[in-house]
Amino acid sequence: MSTRYHLKDIILLALIGIIFGVIYYAGDFIYNGFSILLTPVGLGPMANDLTMGLWCMAGPMAAMLLRRPGAAFLGEFLGAAGEMFLGGQWGAANLISGFVQGVATELGFAVTRYKHYDWLGLASSTFFATLITFGWDWFRNGYAHFSLGLNLILLVARFISMFVFCGVLVKLIANLLERAHVIKPA
Amino acid sequence: MNPSLKLLLVLLLSLEISFTQKLVVNLLLIAVGLGLVIATRPGLLTLLRLLVVPAIPAATLSITIGLFTPGHDWFFAAVLASRVYVYVLLGSAVTLSTPPLRLARSLEQNAHLPAKFAYGTLAAINLLPRIVTAVKTIKAAGQMRGVTLSFWSPRLYFKAILSAITWSEQLAQAMESHGFVENQPRTVAQPIPLSKIDWLRFVGSFGLAQVVLIAFP
């Protein structure tokens, strides 16, 4: 298992992050729509949790593609660095979110000792990504001030979003890549 | 200011206000950020977008905190709303005032980031127009067969990844054929200065923020 990153790999990781960013610009509209619908009933922050899985997809995808330590982190972080210049509204603040999400998805593959680029690795990555990004929002987006009930609802919403996008969707894409012999079967 | 230091300063300040709950420092940073953004002479549309788009998350968070939490803490609601604007305005102040090439050069020369990371990422960023076109082409090709590809379609990502693999190989080859060698000492075409004044400004701005942070609510 190679752990070195060559120029080609770095470009690929950044490209994947940027491509995913371009595709899920649609995610912004969903976020705004959910926000406007849910705020009057007191569930506004759920828009953030429901779309969170979309933003974290590049990490697990990069890990499934390159299958080496650091891939998930670099895919997420370099993608964030790229999105910083896409005219995305968050500018340099992207780097902080990218860092947190990168560490979170990477940790999931690290605890499986980088041996499970399959359902187990993805499930573990989904689990850690949910917990760590939630912990980050605990401080940054004021989740600490919400009631316990609301926090539980938000945590479940986030886990579902992560599971659907970073788990199921990434696995389906990986399956297509396997059938095309781009990556070896797990 | 030196691009690497500027980026570091904004990241440090953004991190710091994520863990503190002070309103005055946020408003001050918003004013500074807005001033810096306007100083780059952005188009009216860019400026409007920077001011209007964050209003949605800002309003969502503050309304939820103010109306739907046990404490009804409107002060904290204002802190959260202003926090969103600090992230957006300070973050954009960096990206609008620093071209990607200059930042990549500075990160390589001043922050000693390995050149392959600085220029590899830069290469990917410069490919953006082609990426946007490629995603549109894949969607259009799907439409012709009566298949709608959206952000939940594995096939859309699959095809885009195939293009990315080809591009990354071609770009790496192109860079190497122009003399880029990994992990080798490089000469500098355009030095990015890192002066004492840069450091002074960095320490001064960060110090000032600490004073405001401690002194005001």
Automatic annotation (TrEMBL), chain A:
UniProt superkingdom: Bacteria
Give a single Pfam family match. Answer: ABC_cobalt
Q: Does the keyword Transmembrane helix apply?
A: yes
Query: Where does the chain cross the membrane?
Result: 7-26, 119-136, 148-174
The organism named in the record is Limosilactobacillus ingluviei DSM 15946
Q: Which UniProt keywords apply?
A: Membrane, Transmembrane, Transmembrane helix
Q: What is this protein called?
A: Uncharacterized protein
Automatic annotation (TrEMBL), chain B:
**Presence of the UniProt keyword Transmembrane helix in the record:** yes
Q: How does it sit in the membrane?
A: Multi-pass membrane protein
Know the name of this protein? ABC transporter, permease protein
Residues folding into a coiled coil are none
Instruction: Kindly give the InterPro entries that the UniProt entry links to this protein.
Output: ABC/ECF_trnsptr_transmembrane
Single GO cellular component term:
plasma membrane
**Does Nucleotidyltransferase count among this protein's keywords?**
no
Query: What Pfam families has UniProt attached to this entry?
Result: CbiQ
**So where does this one cross the membrane?**
44-68, 75-97
UniProt keyword list: Membrane, Transmembrane, Transmembrane helix
